[in-house]
């Protein structure tokens, strides 16, 4: 179950990274359009409207990214709670020593009572 949470967290993190990269590019384009007015160039009304629109889209993407990262943090918290030491747990049945006593009983050769080795007699 822990692997399921970690896998979901990893997938969501990759999606957030992609969304943030797109948002970064959009914000960079918007800033370039707005910087033209600072540099003394006359930006067109259309360029300013486009920059404002892109900034609004970036704001939405950032808000979604924050929410996704909250979900990722919760998935990681649940995963860590299931395994507090943070180490990977081996899959059931692959744990060293699991059921050792029952396995050892099957490995010992069974001998009928009549074939039990005799104990050496103690000197008197």
Topology:
Layout: H1 2-38, H2 45-82, H3 100-107
Helix pairs in contact: 1-2
Overview in brief:
This protein is mostly helical. It contains three helices and no strands. Helix content is about 65%, strand content about 0%.
Structure overview:
The two termini are 65 Å apart. It is built from three helices and no strands. The model has no long low-confidence stretch (mean pLDDT 75). Helix 1 (2-38) runs antiparallel to helix 2. It is mainly α.
Separation of termini? 65 Å
Number of strands: 0
Contiguous uncertain segments of 5+ residues:
none
Categorize the overall geometry: rod-shaped
Binned, the helix content reads: 55-70%
Strand content: under 5%
Helix and strand content put the structural class at mainly alpha
Rg, rounded, reads 33 Å
Give the integer mean of the pLDDT values: 75
Largest beta sheet, briefly?
Answer: none
The H/E string reads: HHH
Instruction: Give me the number of helical elements.
Output: 3
């Amino acid at each position: 179950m822990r692997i399921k949470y970690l896998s979901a967290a990893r997938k969501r993190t990759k999606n957030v990274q992609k969304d943030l990269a797109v948002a970064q590019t959009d914000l960079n384009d918007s800033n370039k359009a707005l910087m033209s007015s600072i540099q003394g160039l006359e930006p067109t009304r259309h360029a300013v409207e486009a920059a404002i629109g892109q900034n609004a889209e970036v704001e939405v993407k950032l808000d979604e990214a924050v929410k996704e990262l909250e979900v990722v943090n919760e998935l990681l918290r649940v995963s860590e709670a299931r395994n507090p030491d943070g180490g990977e747990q081996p899959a059931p049945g692959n744990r060293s020593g699991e059921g050792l006593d029952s396995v050892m009983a099957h490995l010992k050769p069974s001998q009928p009572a009549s074939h039990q080795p005799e104990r050496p007699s103690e000197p008197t």
